[in-house]
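hi! just following up on the protien thing from before. the input was this:
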Amino acid sequence: MSTSSVSADRAAASIASIEVTAADLQGPGVVFCPNPKMTQWSSHPKVFIDLSHHGEGRCPYCGTGYHLKAGEKIAGHH
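and the predicted 3d structure came back as:
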């Protein structure tokens, strides 16, 4: 394994994945990143991530993944 692939593997392992509940959503199926609970909450511009279609999404700036907790329902969706 090359040094660059080891570095890439470590970087991927350090990216957070956050489980959210329906109560955490901002509007119909949307979360924002960074969120106030993050230690570096002001590290990049606020972006809104739509979870309403697939129940998951990823921040384009920091790579943090967000996924809807199993069994949670988004209000207004069937």
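Confidence is low (pLDDT under 50) at residues 1-13.
Helices lie at 3-14.
cheers
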